[in-house]
Amino acid sequence: MTPDLDAVRGWVDASLASLEASRQRIDDLNVYPVPDGDTGTNLTLTVRSLRDSLSESEAEERVAIARDVTRGALMGARGNSGVILSQIVRGAAEALGEAERIDARTVASALRSASDAAYRAVRRPVEGTMLSVIRELAEEAESRSGAEVRDVLLSLVPRGEAAVARTPQQLDVLREAGVVDAGGAGLLELVRGLAAGATGEEIPEAPAALEAVGVDAIHQEQSLYRYCTVFLVEGESLDRDALEEELERLGDSLLVVGDATALKVHVHTDDPGKALSLGTAAGTIDRVEIANVHEQAQRREGRLLVALADRPRTGVVAVVVGDGNRRLFQSLGAAKIVEGGQTMNPSTADLLAAIESVDGDEVLLLPNNSNVILAAEQAAGLASKPVEVIAADSIPAGLAAMVPFDTERSAAENAAEMREAVEAVSTGEVTVASRDVEMNGVAIRKGAWLGLADGEAVAGGDDFDEVAGAVVERLLAGPRGVLTLLTGDEQPQLDALLERIAKRHPEVELDVQAGGQPHYPLLLSAE
Amino acid sequence: MTLTAANTAIVLDSTADFTEEARRFPNWRVVPLYVRFGDESYRDYVDLGPDQFYARLRIATATPTTSQPTPGDFLATYEGLAGHYDRIFSLHISARLSGTFESATSAGALLGGDRVRTIDTETASAAVAMLALAIQRRLDAGTTDDEVDALVARYKAGHGLLFTVDTLEFLQRGGRIGRARAMAGTLLNVKPILSIREGEVVPVKRVRGSQKALAEIVDELAEATQDTPTLRIGIAHAEAADRAAALEAMTRAERPQAQIEVVTSLGAVVGAHAGPGTVGFFWFDDA
């Protein structure tokens, strides 16, 4: 045993204790690079491995101690953050191992060596992570190379706190989630513990404010449950673990944080009332917020589509009617929706304005109605950027065209594949006859159901299922893989029809979507 | 130096989804990655097989996470081999998808010397195993480092990898694909066809329905290859045995002379990132 090895063990223990105390908080912060909530755990496991291997070490020379430290961290490195940490430890240990004595200058060169090793470990270094935090720590130490070692160490904590606080400004995904970087926060806790352990000073803990928990980060997970429920429980001697256990049964994305007098609860559940009554049983509740997760997720999807599809090369303008149909086009990547359809055709000027407003160098225009195709072509001719009109003449044809769309390719490249898709799809519709018609020798009264396939009337009558079924049979006459049904705003009853299709065409995948279009209770397509 | 199966070992990680090493190749080892459900950590394939994993995934309340083997895990394997083999080829999943290659490289450096050669295959799953099989064929005949290098380069440039997933949710949640891409088409029954290029997951095409997805994969195979006995094919799936079987039949019809050398389940680690319903397809003409 040497005093040196003992000292190093003491530093590691102090660092580990500080990290362990914040492990859960750091896990909750974790959204980058992967929002899987295990950064605190990975860092903790890595440092524990370092501690365990040091407890077996018999090294006496500084260089040998440094080697054991390096090896211990490396051998147990867990996850990305653990590997980066092991490099930080290695860089620092190598510099310290070679030093004759530890002074402010050595501390600075150890941190610089740690920072360099960390940057080298990562293929594409990203700022706003552990890397920027260790670099700033090195800079801080270098600016104090004439000072006492203890002052240098103590100065690292506020500098580290500032560096961690800045990470959301450096990395978009953190800002969006409203959190600081988890790896950086973990590194700061290690430094806090190390500084306290090495100087014997008491260093106040990080303000473990309730707000520090990244509730938004949790929302990045997909949830099975509908309502995001957040509230504060106040009382005396609240039992966090007990409350957590009870809430666990109600849903997922659970967070219960705070102390015995105030607990903040976040849970996704189908029964927010039950969650609240668990809260009132434990204490008094306050600041209740309940939100529909699925709507939040949809809005978030929309924001991300806009925010992260970095400067698209090609954008799509689609003429669409019906809320559901609009969402379908958006989910497939349409940049701009112009309201319109059978009875309300958008003007050339409307289409031109939409084309010009699209954030992309080139535009694909989907009229989705035969009455809109001419105006679309006119608008394309007037536009200031290249526009390809895909002559889809119905909503389902337009959707089929959207499937191969890729925003990173040119309009012309996209157009070739999208036109192919329109050619390959068969479409149908069920509507109400607006006047008496004669078809295949059968007279269809005004007001009766009228079924069309690829623009041709194929059935008519008073029985919706029969008319729709005849359209389906026509569409599935050839070999087809997928049948899509878009229901209209009056939401027809489809159970019997769907059962019949499944029985007669078991090989066909059915996709039923609420389209929300007026006038057509059913739009169909077969691909 | 002439490299043979007697003096050269091959180390894979468990993401190669290859389970026949113990039975077929005494000079092969597989180092497991870790899968974590909450606080419980399992070694991929060792403590948690594919079937157990997918059963667990269905009832899990929290998303499983994965982590690379530690450098210590690799070092133990290398040390175990070092007594018997002069050369160790350690082949790993794309370093852009996992830190496994970094762990292996750290361990190789700890072992010292030039005995271990770690290779970032820039690909994943059975495609890694198929490269190892190609190297093993060279070893069986006797080969050299240069020949292996040339093979690896040719494999990286010339092998095919396509996969289709039921939902992009898993790739997106694991951070393995750009988010904007991941969002697209989630409402309709759109099946993305993806590949791995330069080590990263990239979308190739979107189609409607899983039948179309399989047909598209076979079309791509037909376009990229000739029907020859040197054409090797691999299929891997996550709880989609019926679709894997359909794909196998379609492949036999399209390329009757080809050898289907791997048909496997995706293990817990790859499965956690691709999700149930994933079907992967791999090819390499080892002419």
Question: Could you explain the architecture of this structure?
Answer:
The complex is a heterodimer of chains A (527) and B (287). Chain A has helices at 3-29, 39-55, 62-75, 79-98, 104-121, 130-142, 149-170, 172-177, 182-199, 215-218, 240-248, 272-282, 293-308, 323-331, 348-357, 373-382, 395-402, 411-424, 464-475, 495-504; strands at 227-234, 251-258, 262-269, 284-292, 314-320, 336-339, 362-366, 387-389, 426-432, 437-439, 442-444, 449-453, 456-461, 482-488, 509-517, 522-526. In chain A, 51% of the residues lie in helices and 18% in strands. Chain A has a six-stranded mixed beta sheet with strand order 13-12-9-16-14-15, with helices on both faces. In chain A, strands 2-3-1-4 form a four-stranded antiparallel beta sheet. In chain A, strands 6-5-7-8 form a four-stranded parallel beta sheet, sandwiched between helices. Chain A has 527 residues and is of the alpha/beta class. Chain A is built from 20 helices and 16 strands. In chain B, the strands form three sheets. Chain B has a six-stranded mixed beta sheet with strand order 10-9-8-13-11-12, with helices on both faces. A four-stranded parallel beta sheet of chain B has the order 2-1-6-7, with helices on both faces. With 287 residues, chain B is α/β, with parallel strands linked by helices. The model of chain B has no long low-confidence stretch (mean pLDDT 92). Chain B has helices at residues 21-24, 50-59, 71-82, 100-111, 126-141, 145-158, 169-173, 179-183, 210-224, 241-254, 268-274; strands at 8-13, 28-31, 34-37, 40-43, 65-67, 87-92, 116-120, 160-164, 190-197, 200-208, 231-237, 259-265, 279-285.
